[in-house]
Fold this sequence. Notes:
Layout: E1 2-3, H1 17-27, H2 41-56, H3 64-74, H4 80-85, H5 88-101, H6 105-125, H7 130-148, H8 152-155, H9 157-172, H10 181-190, H11 194-203, H12 208-221, H13 224-228, E2 233-234
Antiparallel strand pairs: 1-2
Helix pairs in contact: 2-3, 2-6, 3-5, 5-6, 7-9, 10-12
Amino acid sequence: MKKKPVSQTRVSSKMPIDELLVDLFERYQDSFDKHQWPQESKRWYELVYCVFSAVEGRFGPETRAALAVRVLIELDLLEISVLAKSEETTNLHLGIVLGRIGFSEEQADQLVRALCDLAKCLDKTYQGKVQLLLRAFGMELVNNVLQALPLEDSMGKQNASLVVMHWLQNVLNLPVLVPSPGLQTLLAETGAEAEEVLAAVDELDINVALLDEILNRWVGAYPPTDRAGDQQEVI
């Protein structure tokens, strides 16, 4: 008896939902390369870059702003939880790094203030997760688009909502959980609630749009008996 190679074995949907998601993300790692924002932390870094660019007055990859973001990530100085505390030593370190990169003392002070203010807001109101901010306003956008587009009469409310959420997720990378076939299968086979899945994905810092793609790949790759059981052995 021998086990199938990891790339050919199924993932068990009997394990806890967070462990199942970790296994699925590892199995379909190649999907991460197709998304602009596979990890939600990268959206935060993009916001930081936009703040720096506005102060520098230049946009692009060869700017002080872009360099500053790369350096601060390497130094672990862009963690929202750290910036939200606005500790004097951290702020001083930030100012020194920004000064060495080429920002003036006045610009560095302005940037440190902006980073701390943003981090405090995200930490207090959105659990330190930028995707919760985007999701909150994203659902408002979904509802507004549903009202603007005449889909409900022809497709019904449920399908119209599915169309709009799926479309906005695809074109805007909106971090909303679409009730896709893959998600419905996951919920049915694990007994998990959608909110539980969403919380686990947020905790793993993974883009929900990426989750939808991976779940649909998972459902298509294995029959139900293989998805629901433990790793099988073959001769």
